């Protein structure tokens, strides 16, 4: 069985963001990068399935972006993916979800994957479109927001998370695509031997121009910090003083502390 | 301008969020036409046309068939925008419709900007403005960003016949939410632990603070997913909706899905080492501090 997992590298969200010179996305200087959290669940689920299937499965990981995304690819390889594709694109951040999905579909369409995993969304852009668009472009069954996954005999049994803690139960016949939600599993930490093994795995570079044929359908026209309401009080400083100040405010402003 | 509003039915009931779409369309100044997979009784109440596709034949979740239903209504109405709620239904269906029409999609709109739409990004720390390239677009609207319009009027219902198979997907039914061990909805004070507390052992620090306040322990989702705190204490869209007199968010960034569960709190205190954390937007007091250092000091101050 051929498995694909699509991953994105995103900045640490505790960072401070400021617009880049073009005013369309953030300035990348001084950011720490990591594997998109939702994609970690996707990688883990794909690796678990590969383990379940034993020798007959091959897991490819794909990421689009500049050279730095190889770090995220290496993490997925160290978690257990067999090989990787790096779609080289220094301007990936300017592409809209349609272009990203088209690029992935152009690669995946030739490979005939049985099951594709993506995160339900990226942590930075949060468009929640790419997975489903890839499935639609390839004509695959797909389900989003998985918090439960099992596989047997060509059928994925999935649990979709709905609002308020309710779940929707769906079966997907392969070939299919699923998008993974927080809490689907517990992603493993790559062990040192696996990190070493990953160094020998193939990362195939493909220039984005070989795959992308589409113009954006939903381009970003500006990027900025939201206007702060700024109503709240900010307390900083020595904890014991701040704590006393806070207690006094709570006594004054709320009915719960006397 | 015309907006086709894709209303949402679950377990035979129209979801209230469908009326948020009405408000959104009014804000756009668009004519409203609705489409839903449901039954007569689930049609939204407004003065306009509703395309009704029978849920008894299509089922409540069958993305390929629901896509076909929306596309059938699009073919009849030629709307400028197809609008859905950004919900588990909407974010699943929207890209399917966008792909079929080959038009752009704008996800989780929080505001209408001149000629475009505003969406949050980077965990609500930043915003983008997006302008769809073509004349038509698919939009999803952030839950709660546009207050629900009151139901009023009588729709003119037109049945649509749609047939489509599941494209390899079969819906097997719903699994109800787990029974709640604690009813946070009744708590007057909630002190919640977020991922910022770092590890399971530190839950005790937040628990001690909750106790000093005489309140209940709550949690954000990653803390629950990691198994540090029971799911029944999760606050947010997929947890509980709470409205205590005091909500103390410890090491919680303030993602929209968390805010959705706690923004009705009377008074919000956030303890976060990041002054820019979006929780600051809803906090009456933001204490910029390491919560592991600050919480014990606050606990002691409360015990005095
Ligand atoms: C469909 C869907 C449904 C969801 N439902 C929910 C839900 O019901 N409830 C929910 O909570 N989330 C939900 N989420 C997840 C949500 O998007 C966020 O991922 C989550 O709320 C983040 O939790 P957090 O704030 O604890 O962690 P993070 O976002 O990681 O934030 C941690 C915060 O702690 C601060 N911090 C770190 N260390 C310290 C320290 N030592 N002292 C003080 N502060 C520190 C950081 O500055 C940061 O602001 C949902 C997501 C999706 C996609």
Looking at this protein, list some descriptive labels.
heterodimer; A: 258 residues; alpha/beta; nine-stranded mixed sheet; two-stranded antiparallel sheet; 13 strands; B: 304 residues; five-stranded parallel sheet; 8 helices; 30% strand; elongated; binds flavin-adenine dinucleotide
Greatest interface by residues involved:
A-B, 84 and 94 residues
| Overall spatial form of chain B | elongated
What ligand molecules are bound, each kind once? flavin-adenine dinucleotide
What is the beta-strand fraction of chain B? 25-35%
Give the overall average pLDDT of chain B. 95
Structural class of chain B: alpha/beta
The total beta strand count of chain B reads: 17
Number of strands of chain A: 13
**Classification by helices and strands of chain A:** alpha/beta
Separation of termini of chain A? 65 Å
**Largest beta sheet of chain B: what is the strand line-up?**
9-8-7-10-6-1-4-5-11
% residues in beta strands of chain A: 25-35%
Radius of gyration of chain B: 22 Å
The Cα radius of gyration of chain A reads: 21 Å
